[in-house]
Amino acid sequence: MTFQNTREFARELDSKDALKQYQEQFIFPKVNDKRVIYFTGNSLGLQPKRTKAYIDEIMNDWAELAVEGHFYAEKPWWDYQERFAEPLSKIVGALPSEVTVMNTLTVNLHLLMVSFYQPKGKRYKIICEEKAFPSDQYMFQSQVNFHGYKPEDAIVEIKRREGEHNIRLEDVLAKIEEVGDELALVLIGGVNYYTGQVFDIKTITAAGQKAGAKVGWDLAHAAGNIKLELHDWNVDFAAWCSYKYMNSGPGNASGCFVHERHHNSDLPRFAGWWGHNKERRFKMEPSFDPVHGADGWQISNLPVLSLAPYLASVEMFAEVGMETLIAKRDHITSYLEFILHEIDKEVKGNFEIITPSNPEERASQLSVFLHGEGRALFDYLMKNGVITDWREPNVIRLAPVPLYCSYEDMYDFGQILKKGILGK
């Protein structure tokens, strides 16, 4: 399709949008009494209007049933998490038994590393990407310290080549081969938070396992955003947050994946009573008998008030389907890319999109170096109704989330950006 930088063209695209009805199902902040253009769904998704009803249901059950809500609420609390198995499995490409919901993201990655990072002899090294999200970096450091290794020795970062913004697949594979029989674990972010680069999960997983390592993924920026086939790709484990592309609310519950081939294994784990045999859980037995599947990694009674917004979201995803979501994601991201190039020409600027141009290597994010511009431009955008994200030294991250961003938003953003630059 040949794009045009006009309001009429953007509105025409919106009229054909298969997801246009969902824009009205979200609550938008307002700036100057006008609905914002929201580009930060890669940090915190907007609130779906249906969320409140899911929370109110639990509050009402708590008020009317008190402790009996565990068993007699409309959605009994003691098995509330089981309602996620089917819809979440479709979002991440898994069997229902391979997914669960519990805790928060870094907590779950730590717990999964108890099972899947088992350094022994000379096989103790972890491969991750350079500039992994800081929480992952801290996790790696504390994990290797706990096992008695030095981070500078045990943690191997795959680096970008000089002058390049993204990591090449061939460099990942070469590093895995180089570390070889010293490699215990590969754990990479499925989508890099800074650049928006999507990694080849299938190929990297196969390479890591061929080297004798376990392979896991931090899918914080991937779940609900890219096509995932965790079961078929033979991924050992994964975890993701729910508050970015899945709109479950700030700091909310994390999803986990454990491949079925590990369900009957004797992998170590930190156990708790919510992972114990469901039918015998309330018998208070002294010996741990894990639930079969990913639910067996659960520890504590689940916070259903936190799970309620997440359930509202995954049911929306079930209505939409990932194929429809990804189709619009690719199209609206391409339109945003076009708008950026057009405005760059009009203002005689020097924008540099550091997210890969290949649609196979990106998702719902464009990270843009605004060469020659500074923080003042970001402040201008925010004051004029564009909520975006600033990263030093002068990068803005733009996430045109397909569920609630419109093509006209992309056009309007371009006009506001142009005014912000020319008005200096």
TrEMBL record:
<comment type="function">
    <text>Catalyzes the cleavage of L-kynurenine (L-Kyn) and L-3-hydroxykynurenine (L-3OHKyn) into anthranilic acid (AA) and 3-hydroxyanthranilic acid (3-OHAA), respectively.</text>
</comment>
<dbReference type="GO" id="GO:0097053">
    <property type="term" value="P:L-kynurenine catabolic process"/>
</dbReference>
<protein>
    <recommendedName>
        <fullName>Kynureninase</fullName>
        <ecNumber>3.7.1.3</ecNumber>
    </recommendedName>
</protein>
<dbReference type="InterPro" id="IPR015424">
    <property type="entry name" value="PyrdxlP-dep_Trfase"/>
</dbReference>
<comment type="similarity">
    <text>Belongs to the kynureninase family.</text>
</comment>
<comment type="subunit">
    <text>Homodimer.</text>
</comment>
<dbReference type="InterPro" id="IPR015422">
    <property type="entry name" value="PyrdxlP-dep_Trfase_small"/>
</dbReference>
<comment type="pathway">
    <text>Amino-acid degradation; L-kynurenine degradation; L-alanine and anthranilate from L-kynurenine: step 1/1.</text>
</comment>
<keyword id="KW-0378">Hydrolase</keyword>
<dbReference type="GO" id="GO:0030429">
    <property type="term" value="F:kynureninase activity"/>
</dbReference>
<feature type="binding site">
    <location>
        <position position="301"/>
    </location>
    <ligand>
        <name>pyridoxal 5'-phosphate</name>
    </ligand>
</feature>
<dbReference type="InterPro" id="IPR000192">
    <property type="entry name" value="Aminotrans_V_dom"/>
</dbReference>
<dbReference type="GO" id="GO:0043420">
    <property type="term" value="P:anthranilate metabolic process"/>
</dbReference>
<dbReference type="Pfam" id="PF00266">
    <property type="entry name" value="Aminotran_5"/>
</dbReference>
<keyword id="KW-0662">Pyridine nucleotide biosynthesis</keyword>
<dbReference type="GO" id="GO:0009435">
    <property type="term" value="P:NAD+ biosynthetic process"/>
</dbReference>
<keyword id="KW-0663">Pyridoxal phosphate</keyword>
<feature type="binding site">
    <location>
        <position position="221"/>
    </location>
    <ligand>
        <name>pyridoxal 5'-phosphate</name>
    </ligand>
</feature>
<dbReference type="GO" id="GO:0030170">
    <property type="term" value="F:pyridoxal phosphate binding"/>
</dbReference>
<feature type="binding site">
    <location>
        <position position="243"/>
    </location>
    <ligand>
        <name>pyridoxal 5'-phosphate</name>
    </ligand>
</feature>
<dbReference type="GO" id="GO:0019441">
    <property type="term" value="P:L-tryptophan catabolic process to kynurenine"/>
</dbReference>
<dbReference type="Pfam" id="PF22580">
    <property type="entry name" value="KYNU_C"/>
</dbReference>
<feature type="domain" description="Aminotransferase class V">
    <location>
        <begin position="106"/>
        <end position="246"/>
    </location>
</feature>
<dbReference type="GO" id="GO:0019805">
    <property type="term" value="P:quinolinate biosynthetic process"/>
</dbReference>
<feature type="binding site">
    <location>
        <position position="273"/>
    </location>
    <ligand>
        <name>pyridoxal 5'-phosphate</name>
    </ligand>
</feature>
<dbReference type="InterPro" id="IPR015421">
    <property type="entry name" value="PyrdxlP-dep_Trfase_major"/>
</dbReference>
<feature type="binding site">
    <location>
        <begin position="133"/>
        <end position="136"/>
    </location>
    <ligand>
        <name>pyridoxal 5'-phosphate</name>
    </ligand>
</feature>
<feature type="modified residue" description="N6-(pyridoxal phosphate)lysine">
    <location>
        <position position="244"/>
    </location>
</feature>
<feature type="binding site">
    <location>
        <position position="218"/>
    </location>
    <ligand>
        <name>pyridoxal 5'-phosphate</name>
    </ligand>
</feature>
<comment type="pathway">
    <text>Cofactor biosynthesis; NAD(+) biosynthesis; quinolinate from L-kynurenine: step 2/3.</text>
</comment>
<dbReference type="InterPro" id="IPR010111">
    <property type="entry name" value="Kynureninase"/>
</dbReference>
<feature type="binding site">
    <location>
        <position position="105"/>
    </location>
    <ligand>
        <name>pyridoxal 5'-phosphate</name>
    </ligand>
</feature>
<feature type="binding site">
    <location>
        <position position="106"/>
    </location>
    <ligand>
        <name>pyridoxal 5'-phosphate</name>
    </ligand>
</feature>
<dbReference type="GO" id="GO:0005737">
    <property type="term" value="C:cytoplasm"/>
</dbReference>
